[in-house]
Structure formats: C-alpha cells, structure tokens
Amino acid sequence: MAFFDLFKKSKKENQESLDMSWLEVDMHSHLIPGIDDGSKTLEESITLIKRLKGYGYRKVITTPHIMSEFYKNTPEIIQIGLSELKHTLSEEGVDIEIHAAAEYYMDEIFLEKVQGGQKLLTISNNYVLVETGFISKPQMLLEILFEMEMQGYKPVLAHPERYQYLVQDKKLVSDLIDRDIYFQMNLLSLTGFYSKQIKTFAELLIDEKKVKLLGTDCHNERYLDMLETLPRTKYLDKLKQLDLLNQQL
C-alpha cells in the first residue's frame, strides 16, 4: 500500500463518525434510479440508502426532480420507481422506511398544474418541496407560492442558501419568512461543498433561526463522502438547537 493510501486511511479513521440519528428523517434526496440527475442504477441507490441508514436515519423521503423541460416525471413514474426500490431493499434486508415526494421546479407549467388543481406529491401532510433557478428570481415566484397556498399546500423552498438572488435580496428573504414559507437547507452547504458564499449564507440563516427542515439532497456517493465531514463544522451543534420539523415527518 502506498504512503498516500495509508495517510488517507489514517485520516478517515481519525475522523469523527457521522451520527444523524438526532434528525431521524432525510426529506430531500434523489435516490430513485434513472429518472433524474441523481442515482443512475438500482445498485447505486441501495448503496446510498444503506449509507444513510448507517448514519442513523430511520426514514428517507426521496424527492425526484419534476421539471417541464428536463425531467418530465409524473407521480406514476415516481411511484413505480419507489415500488422497485422498496422491493429490492426488502430482499436485501435493509430495514429503513422510505417514501417518495418530488422537488418541483417553479415555472409556468408548474403554475398551470397548481391552478388546474392537479394533485401534487407531498413530503408529509400538505408540505410540497419546490425549487427555482439559482441566479435570477422567478417573475412568478410570489404568485406561484400564493396559488399553492390557495390550493391548501404548504410550500417548502428547497436549499434557499443556494439562490444568488436571495443572497443579494435580504428583504425578499424576510418577506418569504413573513409569509411563513418554510426553508429547507442542504446539510452539505455547511461543509463548503457548493461554495464559500453559500456556506456563509447558510450559516446566516441558521444564526437567524430561519431554517425549518434539513436534507442531504443526496445524488451520489460523492455527496455522502462530503456529508461525513459535517462533524468537523462549527455549526453542527447549532443545527441541533433549531426548531426543526424533520422528526415530525
């Protein structure tokens, strides 16, 4: 074994193990194989879920993308993938609760679905995970959120710390919070996985207690490799002090 390999092994052995049993539920991931930019194969999905179980999660709510231009998933497609995943987990004796919702991209097509009364996949109760583009604020953002609420849904904004327009518009952040829009933060944002700016904004949202839900947003093993560095971040203890909803899902 090369010296560098020994160094990597020693470093991993000395690293504090990741324990997410306090959070109980991961409510944002992409683990149904082959239907979006997440897991590519059933084997990969099983590996990822086994790792999540090993971190102490008792339940996983996976959330495939539904995007009109790129990932034209439907509730039927998602449920078929979920059934296959559950069957394989059972065959392999992996005892973890798993459900599926979706991560909806907010655009004109999504607005039409909401206005038309199309049933949306929920994380739990009436919670619906939604996302936007990362750079510019969608012109219809507030209109879509309002329409969702009129249909009885509770919008959960996925990874707000990653949206450049929110970083630059603190008033909009406050307006969304005042409207009781729930913020879901990606755990990896605290590790610097995306960027230093995103990490800083994530820490700010935690300091101001604006985060209601936490998710791994796991797509592949690289995500979980980085997640294992979370115990080295200074904000892990602060996460545990938040009034989070994960345990209730």
TrEMBL record:
Entry's EC annotation: 3.1.3.48
Lineage top rank: taxon: Bacteria
Gene Ontology terms for molecular function: manganese ion binding; protein tyrosine phosphatase activity
Enzyme class: hydrolase
Substrates-to-products reaction catalysed: O-phospho-L-tyrosyl-[protein] + H2O = L-tyrosyl-[protein] + phosphate
Pfam families (UniProt xref): CpsB_CapC
Key word Transmembrane present: no
InterPro entries in UniProt: Caps_polysacc_synth_CpsB/CapC, Pol/histidinol_Pase-like
UniProtKB keywords: Hydrolase
Alphabetical list of PANTHER family matching this protein: TYROSINE-PROTEIN PHOSPHATASE YWQE
Annotated family: Belongs to the metallo-dependent hydrolases superfamily. CpsB/CapC family.
Protein name, as recorded: protein-tyrosine-phosphatase
Gene source species: Rhodonellum psychrophilum GCM71 = DSM 17998
